[in-house]
Specification:
disordered C terminus, 426 residues, 16 helices
Length: 426
């Protein structure tokens, strides 16, 4: 079991976050301690809020008195509502909140169920309940509760996790948001790309696309990104998801920073010339688009082509999984621009290629052999993944957590709590 503890100033915000989910039938109120309830046993936001007012009114100087806790058992644990109540109360006792008012919510809006607890960290006399060594105390409490209630150990699960989970989104499988997050959150850590176009080319391998949105807020221009899941035809099949749901690195300003850093990194990258020659060799050795793409895929390079409705090629991106970089054709050379490939594949005018020297050829052959070896290894890893996904699982395997089961709305709310309290001391 994993516990996450957040602190903030707004009791209304913490309660609204959970009660909105109750309203939409993705959460239920399990129980409350020292919480006012209606005669029929139900709860509403006003009653819950009033239950904490005496404590908040007595608060002496604690600037972030609201505590929002989530307890997350292993997805394979089967816990009844009554067991959740017992676990929650036991955890609160161990953390020093046993005599405090608190409300317990059970969330069912993602693949696994989990509980949220809202309380305050000031007692009836307004004194702050100590949070010294809170993280250490919480981890110890979770280990004790795992043993006491026969729950799976989060520590052992983390140590044994080796299965590659970095894979394309399957919108038919459900929980699309978490599938997308498992890709979006980690690409910036491992891949270099310099534009929104090359970023989208890389995302397209995993059935995702990003779109820029512009507007004004308080008279000032604002820019942001939204993400969509795609089907096998590249068509949007999901509602838009705002970038903050996928973590800080998915936002507009963070991506602009990543673009700038990638540009600096790739400017003098030795992989550039090797990739250029590999592509030129593929042009010489093939007759059409399908052969060309297949040739490069054998070398661990994906080709993403962007076309207008009348089939004109206006963009081409090469994604090299060996150097973990995405390049527009025009970034590599003039003879590899989208216009050149449009002339070849739409008008039959194949470009003339002149390899410069034998060292270029040798470099290309080495690159091709490396790609072929890696492709063979990838097939052994998982035959039902695409070549691109296999190349990535070879890189990421065993490194990534089980992000498809995380609650990204919860993480976004936790960041919001911190943001509102930024610059303040407890």
């Amino acid at each position: 079991m994993v516990a996450k503890i957040g602190r903030g100033k707004s009791l209304f915000g913490a309660l609204s976050y959970n009660m909105d989910k109750v309203k939409h039938n993705t959460a239920t109120v399990l129980a409350g301690q020292k919480i006012i309830e209606s005669p029929d046993g139900t709860f509403n936001t006003a009653q819950i809020s009033n239950s904490f007012q005496a404590y908040l009114a007595a608060n002496r100087k604690t600037e972030k008195p609201v505590v929002h806790i989530s307890l997350n058992p292993d997805p394979d644990d089967r816990i009844s509502n009554n067991d959740y109540k017992v676990v929650a109360k036991d955890y609160m006792e161990k953390m020093g909140y046993g005599k405090q008012p608190f409300i317990i919510f059970k969330h069912n809006d993602i693949e696994r169920s989990h509980i949220h607890i809202v309380t305050v960290c000031v007692d009836e006399e307004g004194r702050k309940i100590s949070d010294a060594f809170e993280k250490r105390k919480s981890m110890a409490a979770c280990r004790e509760l795992e043993q006491k209630y026969n729950l799976k150990s989060a520590v052992k699960k983390k140590q044994s996790l080796t299965e590659p989970i970095f894979k394309p989104v399957n919108y038919k499988a459900g929980d699309v948001k978490s599938q997308m997050a498992a890709v979006i959150r980690y690409l910036p850590r491992y891949y270099q790309y310099t534009t929104l176009g090359t970023y989208n080319a890389l995302l397209s391998l995993f059935n995702i696309t990003a779109e820029e949105v512009k507007g004004q807020y308080n008279g000032k221009p604002r820019q942001g990104l939204v993400y969509f899941a795609l089907n096998e035809k590249g068509e949007k099949v999901s509602n838009p998801f705002k970038a903050p749901l996928f973590g800080k690195g998915a936002g507009y300003s963070e991506l602009q920073s990543h673009f700038a850093k990638s540009k600096m990194h790739l400017q003098n990258s030795p992989s550039r010339s090797a990739l250029k020659v590999t592509i030129e060799k593929a042009i010489l050795a093939t007759k059409n688009e399908d052969e060309f793409k297949a040739r490069l895929k054998e070398a661990g390079i994906n080709t993403v082509v962007r076309r207008t409705v009348d089939n004109r090629i206006y963009g081409i991106t090469f994604i090299d999984h060996q150097s973990r970089s995405a390049w527009n054709g025009s970034q590599l050379a003039k003879n590899l621009s989208a216009a050149v490939f449009n002339e070849w594949w739409n008008n039959g005018n194949k470009p003339e290629i002149h390899l410069q020297n034998q060292s270029d050829v040798k470099s290309t052959n080495n690159s091709l052999m490396t790609g072929l070896n890696r492709s063979a290894e990838n097939e052994k890893i998982n035959s039902n993944l695409s070549d691109a996904a296999n190349a990535l699982s070879d890189i990421f395997g065993g490194l990534l957590p089980q992000t498809q089961r995380e609650d990204y709305e919860e993480e976004a709310f936790a960041r919001q709590m911190k943001k509102k309290s930024k610059g303040l001391r407890r």
